[in-house]
UniProtKB/TrEMBL annotation:
The chain crosses the membrane at residues 99-117, 129-149, 190-207, 251-272, 284-305, 325-346, 358-378, 399-417, 437-459, 505-533, 553-570. It comes from the Bacteria. InterPro entries: AB_hydrolase_fold. This is Lipase family protein. It comes from Streptomyces bauhiniae. Residues 701-724 are annotated as: Disordered. Keywords: Membrane, Transmembrane, Transmembrane helix.
């Protein structure tokens, strides 16, 4: 298959004309922007790339002979470097289908947990065990999603509503399965309803395969670095090439989804056939089919447990037989299950609900055990190489994995409860969803209450910090007339910007509350078999009232959340601005490759990082010129990742200019194994020069905080924000508080960029000299 990415290996001839002036490659941050805004010029020309991601220049910097509006090749005007803008926002907020990625939110979150492990000197068994536990937790989320679809389609619709004349009479579209025809027997109704979760699994497979073909399956730039040298994970040639692991996990998760449907179809028929006096042949067939499903499920789990990610080399091998046999075998078992369920059983009637409580309880218990085990491993890894800046002392990954499981459970319970209410109304004609899901919904109000208390405490601390900041603001502007309102405003923005550093505390408290509430919900569901309000009927009045409030409020919260979710998704599908807002979430969450969950939204960095690497490497090698990689916000993470992927000789010809950068403040704390102090210090050592700009009012960006003894300081002192406290001849109007935006408008930006260019010696020999006499 040809590579659809733009060819960045062969810059146009006019690119060499900019070598003497140098090149500044701008990369925007979250939310995206336009090339016109990045280059401060309404006339821009795409010099390479496509509609998804591309590099642009001002028209006057592109010679007329190359399709631009500028002069001859050797007469490019202007001072300073030629500027290019790399626009990648369409990778996360392009067309309307991106809104559907909201459905994949739990998968994206659990995939983040894989990359949040603590830093270690030498990866060993504990690191591999950490990755294994995250992959297993991700597998349970796939099973949970498909099980929730089975609960809605097979249990609520086909088993309960279609089997109750009062409920089926309210929905005319169920007439053909409840009028005594061929589809009326319970087994055939269930078999027909299995089409819905099967199609859902097929859709997930298709989306994953489609994005895999567009991202993971294309080779990045092949470097000449020594594969035995460990320069950090992000510098390894196979880091942005998850082709083999992605394909293997996709096959295993697809098989797990199909096997979940097969088990949901087989189990009610097997229970009926296994009754005293039941047909012996069908009983034996049911046992054999169940054993086959269990055995194939073990194979799928074994494939997930097997190591598959190879970062030290480009792993071209694909397990083609496994990729075909695993999902096809599961599909064959599903077809056998459908045939078995459709067998004629004249006396079979549907009553109550399908046996879903044990299944959802088992999934919930497995997730709890995996999260606790993950926390033990993460804590052990953190103790080997303690990092005081690591979020939650190395427990960020387990906390995020727990959050993913909670999101999956709440979404499953919410959908089941809403569908049950829609089918049944207020007539009480069906039993409803499993009590485990009702207990999960009832656990939401206590968790929210704990978080509200924490938010109130943080609000009080922030107000106290804002009062302390007022004194600092006044001290920074001696001799100027004081404006109390202006002082309070600046101090408030600074205090609010510090809330980003409180995120580990919020996640820690929320995780503990969620774990306790989830354990209580599972215990209550398994011990009583009743919904919380019914289980507390014989308890004291306070307990009974609390249970009723939690159950009612939890159901309402899930309902409101579900409606908001659907409304937001529909709006994002039609409205580009809303889609761009959702894209901010994907900008942060889909930076990392799909190493744990193959159905997560695709990793845009597997397109963006190779693009930047190819552009940087080919331009410097062919022209021998100077290049500054200039990244704002999330763009600073992309340029750092691209710099890691450059050949060592090219790194020494490249400078980094980062501003509003979350490299240490967010990525260094939450992903210490890849952006911790050792990794950032190695990046600073490998590239020619680096400068980082930040403000105290910025809630996202911050200093890089390199360890002492690593050469020239990277961090500039905090930029003043606002640039002027009061009105001045230069600022006759009140200067705005910029926070995270408009770093390029500060004069310090131009000065630091020019200093970086000056430190890049243009007379150094190119890494690949042109042939000719010396």
């Amino acid at each position: 298959m040809p590579d659809p990415r733009p060819d960045l290996t062969d810059p146009p001839p006019w690119a060499t004309a900019t070598a003497e002036r140098g090149l500044e490659l701008l990369v925007h941050g979250v939310g995206g922007t336009t090339p016109e805004k990045m280059l401060a010029d309404p006339r821009t020309i795409r010099v390479t790339g496509d509609d998804t991601a591309a590099v642009y220049r001002r028209a006057e910097d592109v010679p007329e002979s190359a399709g631009g509006a500028g002069p001859a090749l050797d007469e490019l005007p202007g001072e300073g470097p030629v500027r290019e803008a790399y626009v990648w926002c369409n990778l996360t907020s392009g067309n309307g289908t991106r809104a559907l990625w909201l459905l994949l939110l739990p998968f994206m979150v659990v995939n983040l947990a894989h990359w949040m492990r603590p830093s270690v000197e030498r990866p060993g068994r504990s690191v591999r065990f950490y990755g294994l536990l995250v992959r297993l937790a991700a597998l349970t989320l796939t099973v949970l999603l498909v099980a929730a679809a089975c609960e809605v389609a097979l249990d609520l619709v086909a088993w309960q509503c279609a089997g109750a004349p009062a409920c089926a009479g309210r929905h005319t579209w169920l007439t053909f399965v409840s009028d005594g025809g061929w589809w009326s027997p319970p087994g055939r109704r269930v078999a027909l309803a299995a089409l819905a979760p099967t199609l859902l699994t097929a859709l997930l497979w298709y989306l994953s395969h489609r994005t895999w073909s567009a991202y993971e399956s294309h080779r990045p730039l092949t470097t000449t670095a020594d594969p035995a040298a460990d320069e950090g994970a992000l510098a390894r040639p196979g880091f942005w090439y998850g082709r083999r692991l992605g394909a293997r996990l996709r096959a295993a998760h697809t098989a797990a989804g199909l096997l979940t449907v097969a088990a949901a179809v087989t189990l009610p028929a097997t229970r009926f056939d296994h009754r005293p006096g039941g047909p012996a042949l069908l009983d034996v067939l049911g046992v054999l089919l169940g054993a086959g499903i269990l055995a194939w499920a073990c194979v799928a789990v074994a494939v997930v447990c097997r190591r598959g990610r190879s970062e030290r080399r480009l792993d071209q091998a694909l397990d083609r037989h496994l990729l075909r046999a695993l999902p096809l075998g599961a599909l064959a078992l599903l077809l056998l299950a459908v045939t078995y369920a459709c067998w004629s059983r004249p006396v079979w009637q549907s009553a109550g609900r399908l046996p879903g409580d044990p299944a959802f309880g088992a999934i919930m218990l497995a997730q709890g055990i995996l999260v606790v085990a993950l926390a033990v491993v993460a804590r052990r890894l953190h103790r080997r190489l303690p990092d005081p800046r690591a979020a939650m002392r190395g427990l960020g990954g387990p906390a995020v994995a727990l959050l993913a499981c909670a999101l999956g459970g709440v979404a499953s319970g919410g959908v089941a409860q809403r569908v049950a209410d829609w089918l049944d109304g207020t007539h009480a004609t069906i039993t409803g969803p499993p009590v485990t899901l009702t207990w999960q919904a009832s656990a939401i109000p206590p968790v929210l209450a704990v978080l509200l208390v924490l938010i109130a405490v943080l609000a009080r601390r922030t107000a106290r910090l804002a009062r302390a900041e007022r004194r600092r603001v006044r001290a920074e502007h001696p001799g100027e007339p004081e404006d109390p309102h202006r002082t309070r405003r600046i101090a408030h923005v600074r205090a609010m910007a510090t809330l980003t550093d409180r995120a580990p505390l919020i996640l820690a408290v929320g995780s503990v509350a969620t774990l306790i509430a989830g354990a209580g919900a599972l215990t209550g569901a398994l011990a009583t078999g009743l919904a919380p309000a019914h289980a507390a009927q014989d308890a004291g009045a306070p307990v009974r009232i609390a249970a009723e409030i939690c159950q009612t409020l939890g159901s309402w919260l899930i309902g409101v959340g579900f409606l908001l979710f659907v409304t937001w998704g529909r709006r994002a599908y039609k409205d580009a601005s809303a889609r761009r807002t959702i894209g901010i979430l994907w900008d942060v969450g889909t930076f990392w490759p799909r190493a744990a969950h193959p159905f997560a939204p695709p990793c845009y960095a597997e397109r963006a990082v190779p693009d930047l690497t190819w552009r940087t490497a080919t331009w410097t090698e062919r022209t021998g010129g100077r290049l500054v990689l200039s990244g704002h916000s999330q763009g600073s993470v992309l340029v750092a990742a691209a710099a890691w992927q450059l050949p060592p000789a090219v790194r020494q010809r490249v400078a980094l200019l980062t501003y509003g950068s979350p490299l240490e403040r967010l990525y260094g704390r939450w992903f210490p194994a890849h952006f911790g102090p050792a990794a950032l210090a190695a990046l600073h050592r490998d590239i020619c020069c680096w400068r980082n700009l930040h403000r105290r009012t910025d809630p996202i960006g911050g200093p890089v905080r390199l360890p002492a003894g690593h050469g020239t300081e990277v961090d500039h002192e905090p930029l003043p924000d606002p640039r002027a406290y009061g009105r001045t001849p230069e600022h006759p109007l009140p200067a705005p508080i910029l926070g995270h935006s408009d770093y390029q408008e500060d004069p310090v930006f131009i000065r630091e960029r020019d200093r970086l260019l000056a430190r890049l010696h243009p007379d150094l020999p190119a890494p690949r000299p042109e042939p000719g006499p010396k």
